[in-house]
Write a structure and sequence with these properties.
This protein has one domain: Acetylglutamate kinase-like (Carbamate kinase, 3-Layer(aba) Sandwich). Helices cover 40% and strands 16% of the residues. It has nine helices and ten strands. α2 packs antiparallel against α3 and α6 runs parallel beside α8. α1 links the parallel β1 and β2. A six-stranded mixed beta sheet has the order 2-1-5-9-10-8. Strands 3-4 form a two-stranded parallel sheet. Strands 6-7 form a two-stranded antiparallel sheet. By secondary structure, it is α/β, with parallel strands linked by helices.
């Protein structure tokens, strides 16, 4: 999207990708997802990746469940867990075009150079302190907030399930919600997207998709406007941002 604010250069990201830490449980699938993002970047998509907390985050949750950590400790440790996942994703063992950075300015430069920036969010979170120190706020909400501050109107949440399911029935394919407005998603509470993220998307006019990163070809098809097995999140007119128009074709992915 062209920037129209004089003196405020656009970050130029076409989509923010929340790369779920759960995808790192299967290293082969993780590498395949990153390879697809690199291919799409070569086709002209300008991604900004926000990593999930992954394995380090789960360890922190386990300690909290046993010993009830202070909010300060849990919040800061989980933000640093996102950094750790980001460093791993950007390592040459996993990718060739991803570069980790804690600076949004550097992320913009990297994208212009044809790289895929991976935001290490802890420094920004600690400096600006934009979210509650609560387990209700996950890396989904952080990614939605990053999309907003970079004026990126689309958020792709790559996770280990096919999308958002009614009553969390992830084993029931008929329960998959293919299309939902962000405010309706927020009303469902915590699903495969945290409720804070869904509400933020509704209020800030950020559309997007929840998609299984284990099938990275689905993201490419979704970006082409094809109907895929995923949950597309739209935003209403009340948000001030038009509802995105998608060309739905017969599902082939």
């Amino acid at each position: 999207m062209q920037n129209k604010l004089r003196g405020f250069p656009s970050y130029g990201f076409s989509i923010v990708v929340k790369f779920g830490g759960s995808l790192m449980r299967d290293i082969v699938a993780c590498k395949a997802a990153l390879a697809e993002l690199e291919r799409l970047a070569d086709d002209g998509h300008r991604f900004l990746i926000v990593p999930g907390g992954g394995i380090p985050d789960k360890a922190i949750e386990a300690v909290d469940a046993a010993h009830s950590l202070e909010a300060f400790t849990a919040h800061h440790a989980c933000a640093l867990a996102q950094d750790q996942t980001g460093y791993l994703l950007a390592d040459r063992a996993f990718s060739s075009k991803l570069v980790a950075s804690s600076s949004l300015g550097q992320c913009r430069t990297l994208a212009r150079e044809g790289k895929i920036p991976v935001l290490l969010p802890s420094r920004v979170l600690f400096t600006m302190d934009p979210v509650d120190w609560s387990w209700d706020v996950t890396s989904d909400a952080v990614a939605a907030w990053v999309a907003w501050i970079t004026r990126t109107h689309c958020l792709a949440i790559l996770t280990d399930v096919d999308g958002v399911y009614r009553s969390a029935a992830t084993k029931d394919s008929s329960a998959l919600i293919e299309l939902i407005e962000a405010h309706e998603l927020a009303q469902l509470g915590h699903t495969s997207v945290d409720a804070c993220a869904a509400n933020f998307m509704a209020q800030r006019g950020i559309s997007g998709v929840v998609i299984n990163g284990g099938y990275p070809e689905r993201l490419a098809a979704w970006l082409q406007g094809k109907r895929v097995k995923a949950t597309t999140i739209t935003v209403g007119i009340s948000s001030g941002v038009p509802v995105p128009t998608r060309h739905w074709e017969q599902r082939d992915v």
